[in-house]
Amino acid sequence: MRVDELTPRSSRITMAVKVLSMDEPRDIESGGRVCEGLVGDETGTIVMSFWDDECDKVAVDETIWLKDARASLVRGSLRLSLGKFGSLDEPGREVASVRDDLNLSDLAYAMPRPDRGRGGGRGGGGGGGKPGGGKCFNCGKPGHISRECPEGGGGKPGGGKCFNCGKPGHISRDCPEGGGGKPGGGKCFNCGKPGHISRECPDRGN
Q1: 127, pLDDT greater than 60
Q2: Residues 32, 23: Cα–Cα separation, whole Å
């Protein structure tokens, strides 16, 4: 593999790179040391992180052989590291020249979005935001929304279901069995009988 072939998903990378520069190692709060260096080959350069004793095994102008290394995004910047399973070996070839006008760590990468699975979020199978997608709140069937429901839909005169009797074709204030808000209409929350409301219930206080 060559440097210009690296992506944020690259793993098990085996290749030769030349060390162009190295920062001084710094201690980290969780313990250990880390240092960063610029490495590259004939196709480009990239920043590489070295951890603990790896910092002592590399030197500027040397060619190193990476085995099972990995690339990843650090704050949106592509970085190279050995990770948990990588190692430094004797170089199988020397990197004679380095292309220094292409630094992959300077390129902007979009952070990968988590996979929400089918049916969730945008573009899912559940019709999120798509015309005619999802399920109708009125009848529970897919393929349309409540205001377009063939069984009588939200907001249409005579459409939807009555909150008073549960039957379709009218709304509660027009309910023939006693409607919400009409004098003497609806059902009493106290005794459950129609014809009055709870504050006028003859059984109140019993």
Answers
A1: no
A2: 16
